[in-house]
Amino acid sequence: MPSQKTKFALAFTLLYACLLAFFMPYHELWFDETEPWLLALYSYSFTDLVSNKRFEGHPDLWYSLLFVVTRFTDNLNALKVTQWITAVGFVFVFLRNAPFSWAFKLLFCFGYYGLFEYGIISRLYAIELLTLFLVCTYYPKRFTHWYGYIFLLILNAQTNLFGFLLSGVLGLLLFSEAFKVWKESPQWAPLSMAHRIIGVGLWGLGCLYSFWSMLRPVEPHREFFPFQEAYYVFQSATRVWQSFFTVPQSHITFWNSSILKTSVEIPLSIILVLLIAAAFYQTKRLFFPLMLLFAFLMLFFSFKFEGAIRHHAHYFFYTLAFFWIRTFYPQGSANGLGYWQRISQKASTWMPNVLLIFAFAQFVAGIKALQVDWKYPFYPGKDAAEFVKTLPASYMITIEDDVTASTISAYLGRPLFHLPNGNYTSFFRLNLLEGHAPRKFVLLDWAGVLAQQQKAPVIFISRFEIPIQWYATPVKLLRAFKGDYMNPYSYYVYEIPPMALPKKQITAEPPVGEVEK
User: Fold this and answer.
1) Is 79 exposed, middle or buried (0-12, 13-18, 19+ CB in 10 A)?
2) Percent of the chain with pLDDT over 70
3) What residues does 416 pair with on adjacent strands?
4) What is the rounded average pLDDT of the residues 370-379?
5) What is the rounded average pLDDT of the residues 323-336?
6) What is the distance between the alpha carbons of residues 116 and 119, in angstroms, rounded to a whole number?
7) Is residue 479 within a helix (H) or strand (E), and if so which, with residue range?
8) DSSP for residue 60
């Protein structure tokens, strides 16, 4: 018979699954969600997929899963079904096994991260949480189930950069215990030298493959640390607080916003880091890896990638994972401890209540996010695609941006003609000339040539409003999709008739600079 804990977890997982299934149809997919789907759908072999996704900057796990799904169906709803399964999976594992209070677990699962950011939005983070929570669950069996635990670390490393980092430090911790760097390790079981060496090799190969699959070919041709301004450092210094306290501003485009000012969030972030550090100070083998992860995130968000709340959230998830793991290590009594050890123990006793307060804030933010996503469209891609479906089939559909317009391609179920590259496309392909994109009037000229060739109007979809009143040939703005969308992107749909282009003078322009190679 299932235990009370299992029954409780099953009951609330079922409730979560029903809520997620209710809200998902109200969520319009955006290009970060549809891009992996299109890559999987239009890759005709796994090697083709690996080649096509080389500019994504993510490991292969989520794309591989979608590749398998798209071998059976091209229905876009299958993307949401896949997301639903992984989200329900991480919620059940967390509710069933996490050593936190039921209040905290329920607030987290039905809060901003659990139900909205990593639940409704179909990205590769739900599968990361599933593998992360499995790693934490099987942590006390890391020696008795040696290869199984290493497999979970490798699997987690294949989810995204943040899974790779966590698997890296937990692997180092595992092997430091296995090779007796620490005098005593709980749940210890003897391992032969051969098993230890093979384990290091497997983990190392798994992490190396994850790193290789994330490394984009374009990286050597660009600055590896593009952000070198104080602004990004100050913004990065707010992210710890924002990752715990996810309450956004009260407007439609609230996504990735914060209710507090930077000048307030920086000191709050410092206080929070000090509190977390103090709570782990007694357990040195966990203190150092966690602080290393925090330091990397700080540097990454300061100099490499500004990120969004789904990225910054890993301050919170790393803390959660390490508190989970810490329950498997004995904690000493306050008697006979030094001053700093007593401070550490006191901070440890505060943290459950602190985390509960943050979980309540996340729950409130989740209600706000769900309410807005239910009432307003998330992204205009679906609306634009529905409008395009009403146009005559003879009209050729062209786009200027193969990233943001990929959502239209996904909802239409077919590739679109990318004017700058001159070919049909459905997903992003790196263009080293993208920093020197043709001007909008030049794109209209090209669309006009296509209209002449097709002897039918051409539809041009742009992210930007073009001053067509100054264009030589009559161009009609059919629809503009802007305004009440949670994601602040817009689409403008233009019709270019099949008319002869007027003769134009050649105008010299400043050189665009050296083209990247």
Assistant:
1) buried
2) 93
3) 425
4) 94
5) 80
6) 5
7) strand 476-481
8) S
